Amino acid sequence: MFKGIANLASMMKQAQEMGGRLQSLTESLKSQRVTGVAGGGLVEVEMNGAGEMLRLQIDPSLDREMIEDLVPAAVNSAQAKAKEMHAQAMQEMTSDMDLPGLDEALAKFNGGQ
Questions:
Q1: pLDDT value of position 64
Q2: SS3 sequence, 41-88?
Q3: Cα–Cα distance for residue pair 81/51, rounded to 1 Å
Q4: What is the CATH number of the domain that holds 37?
Q5: Is residue 13 part of a domain?
């Protein structure tokens, strides 16, 4: 019985530590940048590691139809990079934690099987 309580206490401590780490991770990701490009550089989107769009640059030679095609492609590219950055940071943050099922949960969160 006491062993179960000790395990629960250990898991609670790890959860508290993880909360603090998640807050630090979020701040760190907000300071990192990724860029998505479409149309050979005619449209460029910059996002932070948290997936927030910071800048959109569109070549003035583009017509409306091309812009409507290229902007989503550039945004999706930047979002994919931001998601990968987030996944790597989460993996690094949790690598020393011994929580059953954590690796599988992170794999699903990151789009894995």
A1: 96
A2: HCEEEEEECCCCEEEEEECCCCCHHHHHHHHHHHHHHHHHHHHHHHHH
A3: 9
A4: 3.30.1310.10
A5: no
Tokens of residue 37, six digits = 């490009």
- Counted domains in the chain: 1
User: Is 39 within 8 Å of 75 (Cβ atoms)?
Assistant: no
Q: Whats the size of the chain, residue-wise?
A: 113
- 97 in a structural domain: yes
Q: What is the pTM of this model?
A: 0.69
| C-alpha separations of 29 from 17, 26, 66, 88 in Å | 18, 5, 31, 11
Cα within 13 Å of Cα(78), Cβ side: 29
% of the chain with per-residue pLDDT over 70: 81
Q: Is 11 part of a structural domain of the chain?
A: no
